[in-house]
Amino acid sequence: xxxxxxxxxxxxxxxxxxxxxxxxxxxxxxxxxxxxxxxxxxxxxxxxxxxxxxxxxxxxxxxxxxxxxxxxxxxxxxxxxxxxxxxxxxxxxxxxxxxxxxxxxxxxxxxxxxxxxxxxxxxxxxxxxxxxxxxxxxxxxxxxxxxxxxxxxxxxxxxxxxxxxxxxxxxxxxxxxxxxxxxxxxxxxxxxxxxxxxxxxxxx
Length: 204
Fold this sequence. Notes:
Layout: H1 2-20, E1 29-33, E2 38-42, E3 56-60, H2 76-85, E4 91-95, H3 98-106, E5 111-114, E6 133-138, H4 144-153, E7 163-166, E8 170-175, H5 178-203
Parallel strand pairs: 6-7
Antiparallel strand pairs: 1-2, 1-4, 2-3, 4-8, 5-6, 7-8
Helix pairs in contact: 2-4, 3-5
């Protein structure tokens, strides 16, 4: 019953993300933890806005292999890493929005600082717009194992509290469950749009 509910919530989140236009052209991947050893993750090459329950695969977090031998997302390794590293992470959403993709390219540092926005409080643990929120940025890599190693090497306090950006690629964010991960995604997308607009206006 719990697995059925988790899957239903993840499918609904995927449809919402698709309607927002945050995962165009079959991009992105979504997952939810089932237990300490397994997670459900979206099948590779599927449109996230029309995903059905049967298009999620049960994957071993340690081996990253699907139980039924179908092909999970190419980026399963990053999901598995976060589930291994953070026992309280229950769901991960990876999107390819315009704001996240562009902002990750125009920010030259290896982190993005968000400060002064009331919407920062949409992120768990954030209580003031005056407290800077750091989001780690990693250079893109077609070698997911190598990218996962670089993410694993970053200190968890250094921009890995709510999610991270992959340069020119998109956003990974997470939460204790699908509901919290979705709130973090929506909050971060709003913050990214505000920050990008602020920079555009200041550049004029």
